[in-house]
Batch of 2 targets.
Target 1
Amino acid sequence: MKKRHLCCSLFAMGVVLSACQSNGSANEPQPSEPQQEAVENEQEENMRTISYTVGEDDAKVSVDELIQTLDGELTFDELHRTLEMTIHEDQYKLIDGVTVLERNGEYLATDEIYLIEEEGELYLPVAFLEVGLGLEVTFQEKEVAFQWFGPAERVGGPPEGFDFDEWDVDTMVDYLSFLERPIQGAQVSTIDSHLPGAPREYRNGFHEGIDWYDFATGGNISRETPVYAMAEGIVVRADHDFEDYESPEVRNADLALTAELGETPEYIFDRLRGQQVWVQYPNGVMNRFAHLSGIPEDLQVGDRVNAETVIGYVGNSGTSSAVNGNLDDDLHLHQDLLIYGELFWKPLTLEETKEVLQKIWP
Ligand SMILES: [Zn+2]
């Protein structure tokens, strides 16, 4: 099996070689035997294999074996259930239960990659190799094979010298002013508890985003209120198969755990945000739209959207009202703005954050 793949790669290499030759003289000599052998040796040297197993869903590889084979590093945070990996110069992050892959603070338009835990062992779908690492993978009987070259430069992420931590109000306004408001005609709330940094005692944490409630934004918010994509971007998450907490008890169990821990683990935080759509914009800006009541059927991960695209409808999914069956209570859009994976307001005080929001959505 391995031999056959090698032949295929050599054939591909041959095509490249002849393509190069066509630019020069037609009579240029063919690669000599030793050259051929050198190519062959290099191919063999760069060949890596990782064993895979086929589970209920996809073919998957062990994270430990992957990291070992690629000479990377990994951290799995048991509390937050987050996996962070460093491979070459690239940083990858996944949250258990969330089908979004973060690479260098940007989110990839794929819903094929998610964390799998089986008998205490972590796995990733083989799609991680293809989509996450950009590798061409060949399936063999029990292994996936691919060519591995290094060192490689970082893919995307913040530019050299990106000093986000030092930004003031004006820098932030300049950076974010391309974003239209998510609800047409609504005024951004000035109530502290609707803004980033406000305490959220029910889950032992802090509010990370901006809430758009009817009474604080000029009115007219209902379950039919459309939410717009705010700017040109790409959909990186669309929870079409969303299922809310099956009962108040299950949600309360999550909240009890936050009380025990004194903070909100990331995987629980994600459930509490309810039905979500995430949109990645240029320059590392990303927005999470949360607590939605629905998503347009034809909206898909990978779709290009703009400020006129409806990405969902205001709701209350993930809240105690929704799980208690009170579908019209506590209706609001919650949105989180991130810059290369960091909440935008991290370098600012609450007063400064308010000023930024008032300036970008006057
Ligand atoms: Zn909120």
Note: The first strand starts at residue 47 and ends at 54.
Target 2
Amino acid sequence: MGVRRGAITLIVNDLLERHLLVEGAIAETVRGRKPTFLYIDSRGRGIVAVDIRASGTFLMLADLSGKPLSGVVRLKTVGEPCGLVAALAPRIRSLLADHPEIEVCEGVGVVVPGMVEHTTMRVLHAPTLEWRDVDLREPLAVATGLPVQIENSGRACVLAQAWTVRDGVADAKTDIVFVSVSDGVGVGVMVQGELLRGSHNIAGEFGHLPLSLDGPPCSCGANGCWEAYVSNRALLARYFGRSGGPGAAAPTDDRAFTVEDLVTRARANDARAVAAIETTGHYLGMGLASVIKALDPSRVYIGGEITLAWDLVEGRLRAAMAQRALTPAAAETEIRLVAASEYPRLRGAAALIAAPAFASPNAWFGGSVANRKQEPALI
Ligand SMILES: [Zn+2]
């Protein structure tokens, strides 16, 4: 953090007084004062994490480090924002009522598949939901009585990767990218340890960068976007021989045939399923080569159901990257998979509430201290 020992003591004392940190065991050292381990005090405190997608809305209770404290509740995504809030609020209340051991709910973190204005948290444009300029925060805060934070799903995923998962990315010099493949494609970018937002909150929208100008129609209204080639919808459309069109952009039914079903068929030697997944791997690699040329990150994380069939994806993906990434080193950029069972998007939603309580506001919220003023609410 580049601050002096004395300043650390002041910060730690403040966090201890606010019961955000707790002192643990005293470490053994050969010489000098023995250090005391500090832990984030997550006892009795929880966060409601919400992942809104066109194909379904998911919620769970998590602790401050993003670990699940409940199972995942799924509900149908009501396309109309007020209707969605009306459906979501009672589910949040009953989730908290089912867990009386959580005495304090720190807030509701919501990830959405779209661009979010980060000071007001208005959803500027969520193509797969057909939302433009939607305020979900205020009505959800009123309906639940809890602080609400909203963020783009890709951005929240990359934040969680640095904040809760760490694996070597907490270092401030790190450039990492998270590609979340779902109904659409969300990309979160962290440059030099900070989330990249851009001047108009659309930085990192690689999902809507064209691979071809006359490709399949995309949910954003354009043609040939990366998302229109690699999203779960695009993969299923490829398998079923649909070439896109208005049907490809419509929200999918949550009981319909899923990517998991497709992977099961591929495992049972369905040649068309294997071919659809491999072709998706090719396009995934083509788009990743653009991401690498734009940002040259040290590591790319990929999350989503497609990771279940990585053995079928990887060969074509690496071949496409080798063809397009300009240098052998860039083509070999490290890729780490984040399994669907780790709930990266829900973990991202939890990080929206946890990170600002601890991290420097500059690092996470671009200096917006307003987000830190909200006190934890008692249930
Ligand atoms: Zn698009």
Note: The longest strand covers residues 45-53.
